[in-house]
Amino acid sequence: MATIPDETPVRLRAADAPDQPAVTPALEDLYRGFERELLVPLWTEIGDLMPRRPRSRAVPHLWRWRNLLELAARAGELVPVGRGGERRAIALANPGLGGRPFATPTLWAAIQYLMPGEDAPEHRHTQHAFRFVVEGSGVWTVVNGDPVPMNRGDFLPQAGWNWHAHHNAAAEPMAWIDGLDIPFQYATDAQFFEFGRDQISADEHATPERSRSERLWGHAGLRPIGAPAGTGTPLLRYPWEVTDRALADQLDSGGTVEPGHAAVRCTDPATGGDVLPTVRAEFHRVVRGAETAPVRETGSSVYTVFDGSGTVTVGDTTWTVTRGDLFVVPSWEPFSAKSEAGPSDSDSGSLDLFRFSDAPIFEALRLNRREPR
Ligand code: GTQ
Ligand code: FE2
């Protein structure tokens, strides 16, 4: 039996498959029989279905924040937000995924935009979601009636099936990034969606500095004994001040991933596990001049440059990146980042990256693999 070379094209045609008999009328008739009965022989498909290593249809791709923001602002002027469309969210469509609004085969990433005074109506869905704020403030997301502020650097997880609406209480428009597992759930045929109230109450339009969820669950190492179990992670905001301090303290105290590279993962305070069942969220800080060692992993990630600048390499592609830029790392593509001074010196002096990935899915299914490249 001939071995299939490593770089065999993804789809083998019947007659091209290794060790195939010559094409005779009898063989052609056999293949017509397969077609008629809706049967497909493994030997014509094996290179595509059972590759030697991951071959993502998703490709490395970068979206520039200034372009996203400019288009989102125009959508803010031209396109209303309301029942039906539900959100003024504009998704990143990976050029390898056939025009679907999928950043990776499992992850949705979008820029969402609300004009001053606007409300995005209440709904809930099985898809797990989060918000991440690159710049601005003034929007509160109201989760099960609890208004949660959104400020620069904040990470706001929101597990599936919780009611949520958003309202902009400020005089300025605000943009942020949404991450969801929409493409993954699309493949499961297990999604549900419900419309909530068209208008949330006056109480829920309140603009507290801290949500009820943070007052209960936002104290590291302290679990509220009487707090009722909700659906999914109970802490609804991971404020930037805390994340920033955690990264700075890690660099000072020698517990880094590698020299000059600190990283933290957002966890569910009730379980200690990933913050969402299908989505992992991490912050990485690479100090000026440092570079991360190239690594490849199964599963896909979307990165956002939160602060600073530098270069990032995904597979064979290297980009110079700056605040707000978003890029995709497909499964098994090596990734590394280098922190370098950029055109604007107003940053913190480090390259700060926010990363989200589908790692919890891969770990649950024991499909996770990782190797230095
Ligand atoms: O804010 O509730 O980008 O339901 C996609 C689906 C945002 C949201 C998205 C959603 C939302
Ligand atoms: Fe939603």
UniProtKB/TrEMBL annotation:
Entry keyword Oxidoreductase: yes
Coiled coil regions, renumbered to chain: none
Domain Cupin type-2: 112-178
Keywords of this entry: Dioxygenase, Oxidoreductase
Signal peptide boundaries: none
GO molecular function: oxidoreductase activity, acting on single donors with incorporation of molecular oxygen, incorporation of two atoms of oxygen
Gene3D superfamilies: Jelly Rolls
InterPro entries reported in the protein's UniProt record: Cupin_2, GDO-like, RmlC-like_jellyroll, RmlC_Cupin_sf
Protein name: Cupin domain-containing protein
